[in-house]
Amino acid sequence: MPQSVADREITRTRVVEAGGIPTKVLTAGSGRPVVLLHGSGPGVSAEANWSGLISELARDFLVIAPDIAGFGGSIGPAGTVYGIKLWVRQVMELLDALEVPSATLLGNSFGGGLALAATLEHPERVDGLVLLGTPVGTFEMTEGLRSGWHYEPHEAEMRRILEIFAYDPALVTDDMVRRRYEASARPGAQDAYRRLIPEPGPAGTPIKGVPEESLRTITQPALVLHGREDSVIPVELAWRAAHHIPNADLKIFSRCGHWVQLERRSEFLCEVRDFLGRL
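Predicted structure:
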């Protein structure tokens, strides 16, 4: 029996073993699989990053939104070494556990870098890429990246950091601040985050994203989305990604910071639906 719209919009939460990590994952909808990979930062999770978007995308697609190892509800046992090899393995084993042969990977920031790494290592499992505010090549450390590492759990400090991410600080609500603060204040949460992200060096310290030369080997269709006023990942990196990925389209949003999916929500959904409809 076909699913009703109401059924497709139900978001289910489960824990799946993937990469040796009990992985919290949100799923909804049916049809073409789309994996939402969240960004990094204190208190981040799939739910925080994709709030309100999962049910919208689930009207047309099977949406899979995991908490990446080290974030949210996906914390590994003592001694877990977090890094790109673990994260790629976690994504692939999650697809295996959910019996999904291949999927489109939609990644925000760190999640976009993970989507690229997974594509380069397992191209047969990736149908397409949507990259939001994704680091590629080498660029200078930004204030947005630096502030997350030095963060100490406090609501006022959480608000300051989140307001760096958004072009319009009014987007940062009291509820958003409270939820992210409470998640970041869990025992050991910030220590875990610091093990994932290198300690920021002095001003001008280079940060390395996915090497540009490796992007030329990606054959999957890609959609690159970026906010023009992004102060976390410079907008110039979007042009680099679109220039080097052979089959990539690029869309730059004006008056938009690091959160395209929240700041330009309607346009984001239209772009993603149109892209996925063409795969």
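Summary: The chain has 13 helices and ten strands.
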